[in-house]
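Severity: low
Component: inverse-folding endpoint
Summary: output formatting inconsistent between runs
Steps to reproduce: submit the following structure tokens with default settings.
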């Protein structure tokens, strides 16, 4: 039995090395192989000690049995990898059929799909994409195809399918920062091939950083340069851009030395990336803390859970009042939007006048939306598929009696991640002169699309989203720009390396100057 086990364990190790070599780092392969053995060995040892208390038992039998279990677990891990790496593929006819279905759905549901690209140019580019399809289309190519098509209309809410089922595609184990069309390294996700943070990326797989930006930005929907830069920073795009097993990176260190390395993400990199994404997703949503000298600071990262937010605002502004706070900083630089009613609720605490976040809203009426949402609040004579229902001159939201309303000076920090409902809130904040805005242009436009209709493609079963509303934010302009702050201040790559928040420090300096002017 022991001889058979030794042979089995050796064969499994060889299969691990042969099959996983091009997907994982060598230490990760060995780790996957050894983990079941080590876990089972520990459990076997504990069981052996417990059983020995009650009756004699030969340890060889115990460990032999548990090694059999370890072999089964190892085979199970292999089957799991076979599942992930057995790439789904489709026929060319299936993909072209789903493309036609997606376009018909887009034209039915979206209020203005050809606001940026003409219908003729759109169909010409789609035809070109169709012609490039092979007869058998791998899963990764299928995802890339739909992403490229939806990216043409440049609507950040009308989204492509999620990433393919396989979480172990090789990817660039780095997070980037885009500054003036140049790529800098902001974070390493691997302990291998570490590139110094702050280094400038010169080329990836022999393509310049500008070529990478131009090509990778065709793989997702974006509305302006800030929103594009936000999505380009994450490495998850790299397998869709180039499914290389190894990426060749040429970079310039902060000291000015040019170097080249080869990098590939593995399980450890994926875990680090997932951990980092949780921080970017801002699980805590909103947080208040007291800064010195009568300054309060609210970090507001997600428009989510109105009831919880109301409780947060009540307790926060009670504390602000009790501490006699004179200056309030609201930071929405990481806020990607959500439920806009949270912004309205916050405005009830900081605005001095009645307000609104939109001047008008255009809703596309379609048979899909009628079937799913049943617009009973719209008169049946106006609920005709293919028409636009317009809500114009939206009324102001009246300020209610609020003893906790803040009467000091308010500062709003915004940036490229400020999007959707967060951008609407910024529009209202600016238009009704609630306070001073500091940071960089928002990733959300002042005339934008939103509110999602979700559907599934019939052949590939990809989940897709479409906007069905067009919003004209208050004081907005149809110029493909977000809200421009009163003071344009941006963290440099050196600031990020040194964990220095230039935007916040600039705001604190403004407050300091205001205090001095008041005292004089």
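Observed output (run 2 of 3):
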């Amino acid at each position: 039995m022991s001889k058979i086990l030794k042979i089995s364990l050796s064969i499994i190790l060889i299969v691990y090395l042969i099959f996983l070599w091009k997907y994982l780092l060598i230490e990760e392969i060995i780790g996957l192989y050894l983990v079941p053995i080590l876990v089972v060995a520990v459990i076997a040892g504990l069981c052996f000690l417990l059983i020995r208390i009650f009756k004699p038992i030969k340890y060889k039998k115990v460990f032999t049995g548990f090694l059999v279990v370890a072999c089964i677990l190892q085979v199970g891990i292999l089957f799991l990898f076979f599942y992930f790496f057995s790439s789904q593929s489709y026929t060319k006819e299936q993909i072209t059929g789903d493309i036609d279905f997606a376009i018909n759905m887009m034209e039915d549901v979206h209020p203005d799909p050809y606001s940026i690209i003409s219908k003729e140019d759109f169909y010409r580019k789609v035809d070109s994409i169709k012609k490039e399809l092979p007869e058998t289309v791998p899963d990764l190519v299928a995802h890339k195809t739909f992403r490229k098509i939806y990216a043409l209309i440049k609507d950040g809410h009308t989204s492509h399918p999620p990433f393919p089922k396989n979480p172990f595609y090789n990817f660039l184990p780095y997070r980037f920062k885009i500054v003036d069309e140049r790529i800098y390294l902001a974070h390493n996700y691997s302990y291998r091939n570490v590139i110094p943070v702050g280094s400038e990326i010169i080329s990836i797989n022999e393509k310049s950083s500008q070529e990478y930006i131009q090509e990778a930005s065709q793989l997702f929907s974006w509305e302006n340069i800030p929103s594009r830069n936000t999505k380009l920073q994450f490495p998850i795009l790299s397998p869709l851009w180039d499914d290389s097993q190894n990426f060749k990176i040429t970079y310039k260190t902060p000291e000015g030395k040019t170097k080249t390395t080869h990098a590939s993400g593995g399980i450890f990199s994926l875990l680090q990336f997932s951990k980092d994404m949780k921080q970017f997703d801002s699980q805590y949503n909103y947080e208040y803390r007291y800064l010195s000298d009568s300054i309060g600071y609210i970090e507001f990262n997600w428009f989510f859970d109105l009831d919880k937010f109301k409780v947060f605002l009540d307790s926060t502004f009670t504390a602000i009042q009790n501490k006699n706070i004179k200056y309030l900083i609201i930071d929405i630089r990481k806020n990607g939007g959500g439920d806009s009613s949270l912004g309205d609720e916050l405005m009830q605490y900081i605005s001095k006048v009645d307000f609104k976040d939109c001047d008008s809203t255009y809703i596309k009426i379609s048979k899909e939306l009628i079937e799913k949402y049943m617009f009973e609040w719209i008169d049946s004579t106006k609920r005709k598929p293919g028409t636009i229902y317009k809500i114009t001159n939206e009324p102001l939201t009246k300020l209610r009696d609020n003893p906790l309303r803040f009467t000091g000076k308010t500062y709003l920090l915004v940036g490229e991640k400020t999007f959707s409902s967060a951008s609407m809130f910024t529009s209202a904040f600016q238009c009704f002169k609630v306070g001073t805005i500091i940071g960089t242009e928002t990733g959300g436009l002042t005339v934008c699309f939103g509110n999602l209709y979700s559907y599934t493609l019939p052949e590939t079963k990809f989940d897709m989203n479409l906007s069905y509303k067009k919003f004209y934010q208050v004081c907005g302009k149809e110029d493909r720009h977000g809200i421009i702050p009163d003071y344009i201040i941006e963290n440099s790559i050196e600031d990020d390396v040194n964990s220095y928040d230039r935007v916040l420090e600039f705001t604190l300096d403004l407050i300091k100057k205001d205090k001095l002017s008041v005292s004089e």
